[in-house]
Amino acid sequence: MANLFIKQAKQYLGSRPNYPEELLQFIASKTPCHDLVWDVGTGSGQATVSLARIYKNVIATDTSAKQLELAPKLSNVQYKCTTPNMSMSELQQNVVAAESTVDLVTIAQAMHWFDLPSFYQQVKFVLKKPNGVIAAWCYKSPYVTKSVDSVFQRFYTVDSDPYWAPERKIVDDMYRTIEFPFEAVDGCDHNGPFEFKSERLIDLEGFFLYIKSWSAYQTAKENGVELLKDDVVEDFTNAWNEDGKYEKIITFPIYLRIGKVGNVN
């Protein structure tokens, strides 16, 4: 998984959505203490800045050293490059040494890549009992305008489809089907998905940069296929310019699964 994002790390940083304050505040409202977060699969730190404003300390881990190099450097954030199949001993040596010390585990647009049984064992080890919280979210394909969305939907479901890893289906299902063995947090009668949205102003080049940050785009390129071929670029350009606006608001729907660890035997 890490190799899929190494070559386009800068595109990823420059084009992926920032997460809305409403999302982070909702999560923070469910953790009784705000001392320590483990942000897993942090990438280039899309969620880190917001978490670091709310929590005293953040440990942010990823398997891609290249992505971590681009993450924002903050005084209360420790970045750690971990192996793809991190053992419990590596967890204790490089991330958190003691059991029941973490208030919150976050996973932004990454949990569909994980070996969940092993990961959940680690989550249940590090989280404070019984109210330590795990929050995992993903975002689906964005929408812009009716014309752009029409071109994009055809491009996503036909042109790019052969190059997505099977795990992408979990994202398309809004994490509804992902295994999530945690109790509902206080004030909620289920553990999601809960829907939020992220918006940003973007131009057409920025939109193409977002596409180029896809793992599917990199996979296609390695197979000698350019997904953004001339006719596709022309279709997007015509749709983009239809309303005469150079920049447009791009909206990413975000889906959150959240739960507390409870009393683990």
UniProtKB/TrEMBL annotation:
GO terms for molecular function: S-adenosylmethionine-dependent methyltransferase activity. GO terms for biological process: alkaloid metabolic process. InterPro entries: Methyltransf_11, SAM-dependent_MTases_sf. Residues 39-134 form the Methyltransferase type domain. It comes from the Eukaryota. This is Methyltransferase type 11 domain-containing protein. It comes from Lithospermum erythrorhizon (Purple gromwell).
